[in-house]
């Protein structure tokens, strides 16, 4: 079994049109080299409007400038955050030059005491706008966003299939996963352990029964990741982690409450054959620095939206590199347009670690209102299309309801 501490480090490659880093928090933190957008776009790109629209049952954030739309689908959190988006975030983007995007992001955090609201709610709003503006800039230049941000290091990546079951017949769940692996040709799965922020006796019994059975049904060649969603005390996390190690599980995600850094450090120190991962809930670059520097986690998992967008995800990759984490595996990839900003980061960072998430539901009807998102032999090809890589049916905007 591979010991998690025996990994090599990668170096990052710069691009000729990059400038020195522009800070979004502090110059003391490592930064991804920033593109000189005013070299790429000699003329001003005034953001005319930013709207939150509802169409096809989804919230979509739409930026307009120079006759072009920049679009991102919003995650499920946005429906509860509209007042923050409208009152605190949009004034720092509407009417501004899109070429000043890094500064707009910084202003939306720093000015007017917005930082007093700092955390996932604020950064989710800022990140959604930032991601949509990148889509706009890529479309204006007719290039994928990743080509604006650096040198492409991969054109595809292998995936695991996510499963969210915490209850039910373990054998049935395992066999359903095996069927999904057979259809998709994916090489791994991620399953849930514990009870999500709680570990009842029933949760513990389910996990003890499920893990060895899953390994038996899937076989030894399939990679297994396990996500606890903060279910365990440090003692329970160590106990469960050793059982996972005994069954060849490769990654153990968020054993303890995400706020319990000391507890997580105890678990990470006690387990040497499994990669400890976390960071999905975090939105402070200082905290990511501490998580890596203090070895709270081996693997950092910033959410593409919760953490504030593409630039900040790239910065977490640099933090992971500097402080010796095995890499990052950004959170958010799905089988819908929310996957698009992840594609841009995956194309760029050498320290993308392991298999990446894909949600596969064979009974779900494929949407026709956006371009298809599919796997080929267990791998996702990163699109070479302009912007974020998602094409939308123009007719969906005709019946869209304006929320903000």
TrEMBL record:
SUPFAM superfamilies assigned to the protein according to its UniProt record, in alphabetical order: Enolase C-terminal domain-like, Enolase N-terminal domain-like
A Pfam family of this chain: MR_MLE_C
Residue ranges constituting the Mandelate racemase/muconate lactonizing enzyme C-terminal domain according to the UniProt record: 170-274
Sections of the chain in a coiled coil: none
Keyword Lyase on entry: yes
Gene3D superfamilies (alphabetical): Enolase-like C-terminal domain, Enolase-like, N-terminal domain
Superkingdom of origin organism: Bacteria
Keywords of the record: Lyase
Keyword Lyase belongs to the record: yes
Name under which the protein is recorded: Mandelate racemase/muconate lactonizing enzyme family protein
Protein species of origin: Runella salmonicolor
